[in-house]
Design brief:
Layout: H1 2-22, H2 26-55, H3 60-68, H4 70-103, H5 109-116, H6 118-121, H7 124-135, H8 142-147, H9 156-167, H10 169-182, H11 185-192, H12 197-205, H13 210-226, H14 229-235, H15 245-254, H16 258-286, H17 290-302
Helix pairs in contact: 2-16, 3-16, 4-9, 4-10, 4-13, 7-9, 7-14, 9-13, 9-14, 10-13, 11-12, 12-17, 13-16, 15-16
């Protein structure tokens, strides 16, 4: 008993010292929290308030009229179409790349990881310029495309390609750490019990990473709808044809249609708020104690 007491007291003292060292006074905590809230108020809440105040400055009727204007509707349709194409393609690529990197060892694995991160280090404007140099009329493939009456730059295909380039890391980067942390034991057990490769993917691997997958899709969709730089280079700014919502907002603002510009901008602001809500929900759901057990149950059922 004496030995136990001898070891217990120093541990308690060390614990108290650790708590004292990591617990700040109320004044310090209040100062830190106040500084953070002031920063958020100036750089986040104030701009949000300005967007919606300016959007409704001349009444709800003008706000709705700005959204129903033909060019605005065309920009919204093109933005939704671009996201509807880019996000599923990035979903397929992201799952394939993450599954390969997280579950297998192969030559060029480090190079593939580096290439996935490339859009994070390249300016979106430079990315758009690359597509112009490749597919433009004076570009590398421009004469061949013109001879076959195929138009990529200053058309919808160019916008989709540029959007895919700037958004394809999001799903893969969310899934790679999850697949690596899972290991291969459960997949090997499923294969041993007779599951095929596709069954192992859809019933064993993906259910255990479903919240990370959804998180990546949410971020990818938000970036696809809000992308400006790369799309601006390849679109040509053709009203009603190649203007996405961010480009349409820029045109309205440059033409001094401020109310209409803020009205359309409020759509992207609502998208950002919705994305933030979904992101918080996914993070909260992934931390719930029952989430891993549900995934494990699905894997056992599949096996």
């Amino acid at each position: 008993m004496a030995t136990t007491a001898t070891f217990t007291r120093p541990r308690r003292k060390a614990l108290f010292r650790t708590q004292d060292a990591t617990t700040e006074s109320w004044a310090v905590r209040g100062l830190l929290i106040g500084t953070a809230m002031l920063f958020l108020g100036i750089f986040l809440f104030l701009p949000l308030a300005v967007v919606f105040t300016a959007a409704f400055a001349k009444g709800v009727s003008l706000y709705l009229a700005s959204l129903r204007e033909p060019d605005a509707l065309a920009a919204i349709r093109l933005t939704l179409l671009t996201a509807a194409i880019a996000v599923p393609l990035n979903l397929v690529f992201g799952v394939a790349a993450a599954w390969s990197i997280g579950k297998f060892e192969f030559l060029g694995k480090s190079l593939l990881i580096t290439l996935i991160d490339l859009p994070f280090s390249v300016s979106p404007v430079v990315a758009g310029l690359i597509y112009v140099l490749c597919f433009g009329l004076q570009g590398l493939l421009g004469p061949w495309l013109a001879a076959h009456n195929l138009k990529i730059i200053f058309a919808v295909p160019g916008i989709v390609l540029a959007t895919i380039f700037v958004t394809f890391p999001f799903v893969a980067r969310e899934m790679i750490p999850l697949f690596q942390s899972q290991g291969n034991e459960e997949e090997e057990a499923a294969l041993t019990l007779g599951a095929s490769g596709w069954q192992t993917l859809f019933r064993v691997t993906l259910p255990n990473a479903k919240w990370g997958l959804l998180y990546g899709v949410i971020l990818c969709n938000a970036r696809a709808m809000g992308e400006f730089g790369a799309v601006s280079v390849v679109s040509g700014h053709i009203r009603g044809l190649t203007n996405t919502v961010p480009l349409h907002i820029e045109i309205l603002y440059n033409e001094y249609h401020f109310t209409a510009a803020f009205a359309v901008a409020s759509l992207l602001t609502l998208l950002a708020l919705l994305t933030l809500f979904l992101k918080s929900f996914v993070e909260w759901k992934s931390r719930q104690p029952g989430a891993p057990q549900e995934a494990a149950g699905g894997k056992r059922g599949a096996a």
